[in-house]
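Entry 12.
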Amino acid sequence: MKRIASILVALVLLLSAVCLAEADSDLAYVQANGKLVVGITDFAPMDYKDESGEWIGFDADLAKAFAESLGVEAEFIEIDWDNKIMELDNKSIDVVWNGMTLTEDVKAAMETSNAYANNAQVVIVPADVADQYQSAESIAELTIAVENGSAGEEVIDGLGIANKTEVATQADALMEVAAGTSDAAVIDSLMAAAMVGEGTGYPDLTYTVGLNSEEYGAGFRKGSDLAAALNDFLKAAYDDGSMLAVAETYGVQAAIIAQ
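Predicted 3D structure (tokens):
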């Protein structure tokens, strides 16, 4: 009788340990919910809507493929970029996957994936004055639009530029320059290549000086096992060529980092 009781106690302890492990597993949490909730902003060519209203882009397409590899669907939610860490910790979203620069602050606050693309912060100005702004020093007195909480804002602050206009998205920063309400903007180079210049929505804008170099990654809750799962997925997608195929669709193949 005592032996049976001991066995039952052991089984209860084992089941408790399994339940606790599952409770601590983001992977198990996402699979139980049947969806991976992805926090994004409108940021071509990484995440943006097509004519039917579906989210597409390099990051969006990879997120869908990653979710499928987990046996779930991807759900996209637009977030306030400055609140991305709070959104993760509140479980409003499961991952931030939106051309996110792997800064030291981001890596301290999130469980991040391996870097998968190179990027830089570049200065956007009207094309007819571009020759005047070819260095970091030349933009010191300009009013510069930046996305609140972004790598661009971090770079501007690091340069000691006080005249900045904080906006909700990088797309809004471009609109500031186009409207003449800001002299310049600082945005990601991948977005700049897709959004400004001849044949784009902003043909009268151009990008001049690069202010830094950086890398993109995705971010999960601190300690999340989803980061390791994504790293495995990214390596497999790079090795089988599917990541480069998606990159070619959106014109970012030159930025891709080998996994």
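Annotation: The two ends are 57 Å apart (CA to CA). The first strand starts at residue 35 and ends at 40.
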